From TrEMBL:
The lineage of its organism: Bacteria, Bacillati, Bacillota, Clostridia, Eubacteriales. Keywords: Signal. It comes from Sulfobacillus thermosulfidooxidans. This is Uncharacterized protein. Residues 1-27 form the signal peptide.
Amino acid sequence: MTLKKSAGLAMASATAVLALFPLTAFAASNTPVLMASTKIATAGQSVTYTVKDPAESSSTEYQFWVEQPSGQWTIAKNYSLSDQLTLSNVKAGTYEVVAYALSKSAVQAHDWTTAMATSPDSLYVNASVTLNVVTKTSSSGAVTATVTVNAVNIGNAVYQLWWKTPAGNWHANGAYQIVNTFTLPLTEPGTYEFVAFAKPPAALSNNVGALASAPVSISMSTPAEKVTLSPAVSGLHTGSDGVDPVTVSVVNAQGQLISNFNGSVSVSDSEGLLMGASGSLTNMVTVPIQNGVGQVQVMAGSTASTDQITASGLSAATGSVMASSIQYQPTWISMRDVGGNISQLNTIMTVASTVDSTNGDQNPYGLTFDSFKGTSQAPNPFYGDLLVSNFSNKAGTTGDGTTIEAINPMTGAVKTFASTADGPVALAVSPKGPLWIANFGTNG
């Protein structure tokens, strides 16, 4: 007995009767499951299928239907107590196998309505899926990718395309379709990854039922159009030994970071306050650009001024692309005198020294009030204290301090709160208790 391919339908039959059931009719927790010895085979191989039936009893019988590579469904094994089927000497193409479970009494009564069907199981013999990606840039600079999927030995194949953007997000074209060509815009610079799936119409529309291609990656390099400079704070106190990190970014015409751009750029300033590789101050440094980003550090000056930071001379490493003309966006950092004078205050009282008693750390920097009371079971012993970070070590090396002092503002008592910081510059107490520490460190 044979039946032409009918997508979305499962076949059930006894010796002389054929009934058709939608696959969704069997989506129950006690549905039998068909297990195959392999999903991918070579011509001439034997493949064994076993029904795993949670409702199996000593009187359960099984029937197996197979869709041949020609597209015809046939009864490969009629109802019997055997829950296994072996396909021998399989030929190139795709097979779909469906099993039915039915009690012996129902088989004898020809009551096919109570048969429980497995989901179709796909077998791919000498089959493969490959894809080819071709990119095209329009006169306006828009880039599109045309992806062509080729399926071998998959009859009446339908296709689905998945791709991962440079940001790491996966997308799909939608439902499986008979057209094997997909066109999509590439709007982000970086690496895209493509994976295609192909299957016969009757196969499950997931990675279990379909055959996947090997992933194909392409790297899209949009030309660098602009270099931007972004200081972290844009202002420093004169004579404070403070540092303002300036981020150097390489972007395209739309202002998007080019995450696969590598090269270098020259950065200059008007006050000679750029930190060179050796730690000395200079008015020009060469900044390496990796993945579209670099960084330069500006030290606080000794007098009030405005330091203008500019970039120039962007160069691209092999594989990175630059426009014929590059824009350079400058920035400014203000050097301000510390406002106020403690001598002008009416009452001056020394509360405590912040120099750590254990290792001599000094240079108080971060300050916060410990407002966390703790709990009745675990009260906070530092509640109400002033927490002060030491930015320098005993020798005065900035960024090498490791301690945080807890000062009782009423008694002046000082305790070491922490000793494992790394150049702590800022402190804040979490509403749930822990102290947040912004570490600068000697290495930035």
